[in-house]
Amino acid sequence: MRPLKLTMTAFGPYKDTEVIDFSELKEHRLFVVSGNTGAGKTSIFDAICFALYGDASGEDRNDNKMLRSHFADDQVHTSVDLEFELKGRTYRVFRQLAHKKAKNISATGDSYELYEISSGQAVPIVDRFIVSQVDEKIRGLIGLTKEQFSQIVMLPQGEFRKLLTSETENKEEILRRIFKTGLYKQVTDHLNEQRKDMQQICSEQAKMLEYHIGNVKGALGGREVSDLYKVFEQENYNTYQVLEALDKEIEYYTVQLKEKKLLLQAEMAKFQEHTAVYHQAQAVNVQFDLLDQKSEVKQQLVAQEDVIKQQTVQLSLAEQAVHLQVYEQHNIEMTDELIRKSELLEAALTECLQAETALNTAIALYKQEEGKEELRNQSLRELDRLQGYLPSVKEIDQRQQRVTKLTIEVDTLSKQLNGSIVELEKKQSDRLSKAAQVKELEDKVLHLPAKTEKLSQLRQQAVTMKEYLGLLDKLTIEQAEERENKGSFEQADQAYSAIEERWIEGQAGLLASHLHDGELCPVCGSLDHPQKAAATGDIPTKEELERMRKEKSLFEKKHLEVKAKLTTTEQQIKEKQQQLLELGYPLERIQSVYADLQIEGKALVEEEKQLKEDNSMLAPLKQSLDTLDSKLEEIRKQKEHTLYLFNSKNTEYVTEKALFDQSLSSLPEEVRSLGKLEQHIKSAEVNNRQLESAWKQAQSQYQEANERNIKASASRVNAENGKSEATTNKDKALQSYLGALEQAGFASEESYKAAKMSNSAQTELKSQIEMHKASLASVTKQIEELSFTLAGKERQDLAILQKLLDNLEQSIDIVRAESIQAGTNFDKGSEFKANILEAERSCQEAEREYQVVKDLYDVVRGENSSKISFERYLQIEFLDKIIHNANHRLQKMSGGQYYLVRSDRMEKRGKQSGLGFDVYDNYTGQLRDVKTLSGGEKFNASLCLALGMADVIQAYDGGVSLETMFIDEGFGSLDEESLNKAIDTLIDLQQSGRMIGVISHVQELKSAIPAILEVKKTREGYSYTNFFVS
User: Fold this and answer.
1) Where exactly are the structural domains of the chain?
2) Which region is the signal sequence (predicted)?
3) Which CATH superfamily is domain 168-180+862-958 in?
4) CA–CA gap between residue 448 and residue 858 (Å, rounded)
5) Inter-helix orientation angle 674-744/325-370, to 10°
6) CA nearest 998: which of 26, 33, 2, 24?
7) Which of 185, 346, 416, 890 has its CA at 20 to 30 Å from residue 901's CA atom?
């Protein structure tokens, strides 16, 4: 991933929109981000990280609300727009934070967009612009998570040295995030959950076994002489001891159960024998009780003899009175008949009077209605006349309904037709307006390609001019620097030549002082030395000479470097001059020409921008015009169809209206309405029905009154005859009744009535008399039989016999309870034994399974001598590769003094180990902890680790392209030599194709790196940026 352009709006210290165009770096891939503390250098890295991952680069800035600029206007949203290149393709990502404006209730405006720039067009590469899809696509493109990005691409403050100096657990978390080994931790956690579950099952199974043993102790452990009791009395006992004692206890209750069953059978036989004796004695006592009861009953029956005799006489009189009841009943019936006939006669006389009155009234009404014959005929004729109009009026009414319906339809179609005409005219006007707009925009847009081409040429020319002017400024600076360095070099050279000459002369004097005649000269070989060099007093030392030589070499090197730079710049100026002359620009007025070109370029940019906006409006406008044409055609068709329907319905309306008016004129005024005609017919029908009903009612009333009068006269005659006959019959019945009483011997009717008795009373009295006789005979016979049966027997004492039975029954209950208890204990013992065996088997099975899971868990969690988990074992493999790659650079940066070694030492308090670092010092030949390194050494080691990690990740995932690195820490802690080596490492990385951005205040770093992104604060407090490329 290589950033191309970064646009920040209301972000951090940047109040408005700040654009950082990385293309200004040109061929430089290494640049320094410089500025005062708090100016916003780190905010640039935060913006890149926020654009890609939605978060800032450092963990201490993980709240996105902190990213909004305090200087920003309330209406401006915080956003970052990043264009970047990846694997030869260009992408653009845009993120905008939601912002709660002053008068709003909630935050709004959040936005997430991702495009690929192809042929100058931004093409969305996600289905929907939502944060989840954008994040997922970014991770897929870059191939790195935010954690990986922060560890190997963007190295923020406070995060850089964590991998080097943090504890093993922190390193483990870092490596887990980067190399995604969290899956193996999840496996460990899952196994731990399984282990806990199995441990819980084992505990539950052990509790269940303990519970079953407790049941044995509670139910069967109370017999003090038993082995089971002795086992439970021990402080510690095992399952085997319990089962062995339980088997003996079961055997004991088996014997007990057999013995109790035999004893129970013997007791039951004895009880049955005594029960039979008790029942025999009880039967004798019952017979004695019965004899006493029968004797008492006989005495009561004998005492009732006088009453029975009186009842016998009463029954005889009642039987004689039965024969007189026929005469008595006949006399009563004849008396009742006479009364009834008298009442009938009275009713017949009253009916005769009423019937005669009703007949006279009916005759008068009949004559009255009979006189209305002509009125009835007239009413019937009127009804026939009105009903004759009914078919015609119904037809006219139907015609009127059709006319009304057609009137509504014609009015509706007329309104629709007028609406279509108005809408058509409006749409035609709109179309003319839009067509004019399209024509105007098309005429304008015709100039867009030429404007774009011209703008591109102007930009290229402006870039060439800007570069030329920059080179002129650079030339002036470099010429001054060259003159200054040349003077310094010449001074140093003269000083060195002088001191060198003095040193040589001094050396000749020293050599001459050691020459003697006859000895060979070490220079010329002569044996004679006529003019020896004289020794001088101020001879420089060799160290002073060497120091001056180095100083001269240093000035010479610096002069040559500056001269080389000057030569390069002069060559570049010549190239740019040639390009400008080819473009036709005068070099002597290039400054003013550049200013004019900028003004012209800005004007062209505005024109191109306006034309592009017009071009973007053109397609929707054309589409709108096409839509309007389709709508116009649709409205025209609708209008024609409505006009056709209107003409058809209007013709039909005119025809129906004429027929309706013609039919209506042929009828009288009062019957032209169907409703009025039906009302007249209804009134005529009611009047006719009333007249006919009154006539029929008068006829019926007369006929009924006449028939009633005839019947009443006949009923009166019959009633008079009936009463006369009833009187005769009454007198005869009375004479017969009195004669029968006298013949039966009753002195009076009162004595007869006293002797009368109902049939049921006679039957009951007769039954009582017979029952008394039968009961007396029966009880006498029973007394004789019982006396014979009990001869020679006496009453028995049942209480003594019952007490004996109770004692036997109590003994049986005790033996039965003991037998049941023995059986229960036997069943419990057998059940408890089965439960204990099953619980012990389950407990052992659970323990075996638990041990398997626990052993596996101990393996993967690192419960071993090295305290290395399975996840950490895999992380160690990655870490070894990182260290291997890091050491290539660290040995070079440290001058071969250091290389990193993964530490195998155990952590304190038995913590897991394996991810620690030691450093091997070649100067001392010893290993020591990396925490003993100086700040600068730690920075070098951390940088090498980050680079090594980048190499491993790129090799681990071939889809990851690591073309950029940003560093926000550490260079201030390096000495001059270490800084130079660090710079060499960064230059090597740059030469391998990576873009390297460094935040630093170190002046030497800024001087050594030709590209600087300067971040400055305004007086108001917000910041802005500028690129300076030398």
Assistant:
1) 1-143+961-1030, 168-180+862-958, 195-303+819-856
2) none
3) P-loop containing nucleotide triphosphate hydrolases (3.40.50.300)
4) 73
5) 160
6) 33
7) 185
pLDDT of res. 19: 94
For 217, 422, 432, 437, 512, the CA distances from 429, given in Å and listed in that order, are 107, 11, 5, 13, 119
What is the rounded distance in angstroms from the CA atom of residue 514 to the CA atom of residue 509?
A: 9
List CB contacts of 253: < 8 A, sequence separation 6 or more: 822, 823, 825, 826, 829
* Distance in angstroms (rounded) separating the CA atoms of residues 509 and 391: 166
Residue 528 has pLDDT above 90, yes or no: no
pLDDT of residue 9: 94
**Confidence band, pLDDT 50/70/90 cuts, at residue 911:** low
Residue 1014: what are its φ and ψ, rounded to 5°? -90, 130
Residues facing residue 665 across a β-bridge = none
- CA–CA distance, 72 with 15 (Å, rounded to integer): 5
Confidence tier at 428 by pLDDT (50, 70, 90):
confident
Same topology, domains 1-143+961-1030 and 168-180+862-958? Answer is yes
Provide the token pair at 250: 């079961």
Residue 50: predicted pLDDT: 92
pLDDT band at residue 395 under the 50/70/90 scheme? confident
φ/ψ of residue 902, rounded to 5: -75, 130
pLDDT at 512: 63
Query: Which H/E stretch holds residue 93?
Result: strand 89-96
698 CB contacts (<8 Å, ≥6 apart)?
Answer: 362, 365, 366, 368, 369, 370
Sign, CA torsion 861/866/868/873:
negative
Measured N-to-C along each axis, helices 305-321 and 759-789 cross at an angle, to the nearest 10 degrees, of: 150
Q: What is the mean pLDDT of residues 310-326?
A: 73
Q: Which position has the higher pLDDT, 741 or 404? A: 404
What does the CA dihedral 555, 561, 566, 572 come to, rounded to 10 degrees?
180
Q: How far apart are CA 644 and CA 640, in angstroms?
A: 6
Q: Which residue has the tokens 């959040």?
A: 110
In the sheet that holds 1023-1029, the strands lie side by side as 154-155, 964-967, 995-999, 30-35, 1011-1017, 1023-1029
Instruction: State yes or no: pLDDT of 506 exceeds 80.
Output: no
Cβ neighbourhood burial of 106 (10 Å; 0-12, 13-18, 19+): exposed
Is the pLDDT at 253 greater than 80, yes or no? yes
- The residue type found at 1021 is G
If you average pLDDT over every residue of the chain, what do you get?
Answer: 81
Mean local confidence (pLDDT), 317-325 = 71
Instruction: Determine the distance from the C-alpha atom of residue 879 to the mean position of all C-alpha atoms in its chain, rounded to a whole number.
Output: 41
Q: Which amino acid is at 979?
A: L
Structure tokens at 609: 């921008």
The pLDDT-based confidence of 137 (bands split at 50, 70, 90) is very high
Poorest-pLDDT segment among 61-75, 373-387, 574-588, 781-795: 373-387
Report the Cα–Cα distance between both ends of the chain, in Å, rounded. Answer: 25
**Spatial contact of 990 and 897, defined as CB atoms under 8 Å apart:** no
Residue 890 to residue 981: CA distance in whole angstroms? 10
**892 has pLDDT over 80:** yes
Q: Nearest CA to 593 among 712, 477, 469, 475? A: 469
Q: Distance between CA atoms of 908 and 928, rounded to whole angstroms?
A: 17
Burial class (CB in 10 A: 0-12, 13-18, 19+), 327: buried
Three-class DSSP labels, 168-194: HHHHHHHHHHHHCCHHHHHHHHHHHHH
Q: How large is the average pLDDT for residues 27-56?
A: 87
In angstroms, the Cα distances linking 539 to 513, 550, 622, 739 are 14, 19, 97, 208
